[in-house]
Automatic annotation (TrEMBL):
Part of the 50S ribosomal subunit; part of the 5S rRNA/L5/L18/L25 subcomplex. Contacts the 5S rRNA. Binds to the 5S rRNA independently of L5 and L18. GO terms for cellular component: cytosolic large ribosomal subunit. SUPFAM superfamilies: Ribosomal protein L25-like. Belongs to the bacterial ribosomal protein bL25 family. CTC subfamily. It comes from Actinomyces weissii. Residues 102-178 form the Large ribosomal subunit protein bL25 beta domain. GO terms for molecular function: 5S rRNA binding; structural constituent of ribosome. Residues 1-23 are annotated as: Disordered. Residues 1-16 have a biased composition (Basic and acidic residues). The lineage of its organism: Bacteria, Bacillati, Actinomycetota, Actinomycetes, Actinomycetales. HAMAP family: Ribosomal_bL25_CTC (MF_01334). This is Large ribosomal subunit protein bL25. GO terms for biological process: translation. Residues 8-93 form the Large ribosomal subunit protein bL25 L25 domain.
Length: 199
């Protein structure tokens, strides 16, 4: 399923350096760079609030930039956020076209109801996939419904959306479904811990 690209209006950035970046942010703008397809990197400024909304919860957002009437289809590649304040500090975009495939890391989420007495642990927080630029999944869902304890769900076991291919080791574990008892037994109780060697 193709995603509609979020539309953002951009302007060419003419001033560079830390001072210019700080001033842009004070003016509610986010510096960004667009690269790819063999072209020179283009430095642009984006509206801060709209950019934060567009990138919320989706680090691989597909964006259509309107740069003085020129339309650029871009894929979000890196987002710098401020450690304390909310908002986006800087964005790297990669030029794409609607017909190409791209390689992206997509977060893994667990869905479904686990069997009673089991606990699941995500072994791979992100999965590297190849997907059409216009239909990158926001997450790879791993269903744990009815999965017995002692099962490791591997890349090969995943049901991926149409057109999406996992890259890397098919046997790599993605989610580990374990028996709760096995997990608690594996952690020694405090009174069984080795005595401190200082004694």
């Amino acid at each position: 399923m193709a995603h509609e690209a979020t539309k953002l209006t951009a302007q060419d950035r003419t001033d560079f350096g830390k001072g210019a970046s700080r001033q842009a942010r004070r003016d509610g703008l986010v510096p960004a760079v667009v690269y790819g397809h063999g072209s020179e990197p283009r430095h642009v400024l984006l509206p801060g609030h709209a950019t934060s909304l567009a990138l919320r919860g989706n680090e691989n957002a597909l964006i259509e930039l309107d740069l003085a009437g020129e339309k650029l289809l871009v894929l979000t590649k890196a987002v710098q956020r401020h450690p304390i304040r909310t908002g986006v500090q800087h964005v790297d975009f990669q030029l794409v076209n609607r017909n190409e495939r791209v390689e992206v890391e997509v977060p893994v989420t667990v869905v479904g109801d686990a069997e009673p007495g089991t606990i699941h642990m995500i072994e791979a927080a992100n999965l590297l996939v190849s997907a059409p630029a216009v239909s990158i999944p926001e997450a790879i869902e791993v269903d744990v419904t009815g999965v017995a304890g002692g099962t490791i769900i591997t890349v090969a076991d995943l049901k991926l959306p149409a057109g999406v291919e996992a890259l890397g080791d098919a046997e790599a574990g993605v989610v580990n479904v374990a028996d709760e008892n096995a997990v608690t037994e594996a952690v020694p109780a405090a009174d069984e811990a080795p005595a401190a060697e200082a004694e």
